[in-house]
Amino acid sequence: MRKLNFSLLFGCAILVSFNPKKRLTDLPPDPAKPNIVLIFMDDMGYGDPVCYGGGPYQTPNIDKLAHNGIRFTNFYSAQAVCTASRSALLTGCYPTRIGISGAINHTSKIALNLNEETIPELLKRAGYKTGMVGKWHLGHKEPYLPLQHGFDEYLGIPYSNDMWPVHYDGKPWTDTSSFRSTYPQLPLIEGNKPIEFIRTLEDQATLTRRFTERANQFIKANKKSPFFLYLAHPMVHVPIAASEQFRGKSKGGLFGDVMEEVDWSIGSIMQTLQENKLLENTLIIFTSDNGPWLTFGNHAGNTSGLREGKGTAWEGGVKVPCIMSWKGKLPEGIVSNQLTTTMDILPTLVKFCSAPSPSQKIDGINLSEMLLGRSKESGRKEFVYYYDKNNLKAIRNERFKLVFPANSQTYGPPAFPNLNGFPGKYGTDSVKLALYDLWTDPGEDRDVQQLYPEAVNELNQRADYYRRTLGDGLTQTPGLEVRPAGAM
Questions:
Q1: What is the pLDDT of residues 121-158, one digit of tens each?
Q2: Domains by residue range for the chain, with CATH
Q3: Which residues are in the Sulfatase N-terminal domain (predicted)?
Q4: So which residues are the catalytic ones?
Q5: How far apart are CA 92 and CA 352, in angstroms?
């Protein structure tokens, strides 16, 4: 981190004290406090960006971000579902630790507890301006909206873009026997209040551009202060929709069109940072909340051959793309296979931004030494795969993954996907105890527990630790360190 020039700071202090018209916001940003742009995609699979094997569409801006930074190949979302994964990102905790699970909707009785300390809250204490644009999904009304969790401003939707009274064909839902008919219109919220409603697929098609423009406005308005921008795109979660500028233009159908518009968004953000001379003092993080929703077939992404997808504890559900870039600070063109997670972002930003650490226990690990090239290792030795309410489905160390007996949703036979925005059917798989060598078998095809009994024993012992501390629904074990969710 660059040392401060104290004589220069002292001179600036004198100038401010003797010039009452000189506002604090007119001073140049503190070079010791980098800006943060955190871009969080929805349901973007590990294999969706071209630099991770995606196509036949193009993602030149995402690929350029990877070329100019670090591309992670062993990066995990904390859970394979929306609300849980977002709570982990913002708090640095396994969702089970903070009482969060699933994907909440307008009837939910829980939300992210106001006692949990989030990234924007911690960075605000260090003098940051904080803004959020896009999908929230941690509580759909006051006092659990973004402004109550540390953001200075917010424009976005309160939960997933498919939580609305609209059929898969884009027409209003008329079947009153379906739970979908009970959804209210999808609100677009400014601050704490709805300002309009997303009623049609054409409305959905405006979201990527609209949220990008608002993100750019935030950057320009706060360029003289250190800032944290959280851009949580609703795409590529179904229903997918692209604006007229991108519709029908890719070689990958509508999904490809949406990917190319999202890629445009990343390029637009980068251009705004460059035009405002902010690139050299901005850490950009690009990642996803979980894997693709494969039941939607050609409206879903891909996992590059990983097993299953969203809604499962298999690799395709939780291994996601992640790119970090900071011009002149982080190494460029690096591919990292170190075990890392979204929970590690909070303690890493706290370090980079000289912000206070959370007062309560978290599960994230500070990655700053690895990111700066001072260490070859991330420091993370294991990761636990929770799903359902708090079922411990699996645990991995740097090499092996131990999967525990349980029922699992599956996209395989007899399930099958559907096309053009309509969901297919799920299946149920009875999972048996198995050990997978993720170094040689990332697709989780070959059970090697008989070859490595010591790995089974070691991972079982570590799993017992998590059962005691975070709980486990499969063994009916209450967690000693679990904190309650907020009650709506």
A1: 999 999 999 999 999 999 999 999 999 999 999 999 99
A2: 30-380 (3.40.720.10), 384-487 (3.30.1120)
A3: 34-351
A4: 82, 137
A5: 15
